[in-house]
Design brief:
This protein has 6 helices and 2 strands. The protein is mainly α. The protein has one domain. The protein has a two-stranded parallel sheet with strand order 1-2. α3 packs across α4. The mean pLDDT is 85.
Amino acid sequence: MSHLSGHRQDFLLPDRSKYVNMEKRFLRSYMDLLVQTCHRRGALATGGMAAPLLPQSQQTDSYSRVLASVERLKLLEINAGVDGFMVYDMNLIKPMQELFELHTEGDNQLHQVRDDVSVTPEDLLSMPSGGVTLYGLKYNIAVGVLFINAWLSELL
């Protein structure tokens, strides 16, 4: 990708819909450090954004596949000790609340101080392998436009 002059290639993230998720070393490390830092200070730790959109019909394989993927990744965050997380699709609120309630006790996980965590700069700077795709670029633009639309809609 030498055509991207001015950008450090070792910090160029690949297609996030294919290669970047909380299972990757750098995001997992960030999540563990976030929980440890927040909880040591008595602050709630908010996990990442569940960005996928659920298909309209709950009776499809695609719906089940997307929901299962989001649940799997959010369970990693719950097990790391987050006290909640954000969702992009409002239809994910109920299933994510149910998932959180099923795997936690109480309103938060502040009791998980995560003394087991030892994150290094290398952990946080380890970029996942994979390529940049046209689909990934279009997806990122679409998400950005939808967010801006939602923000502007709130102002009107």
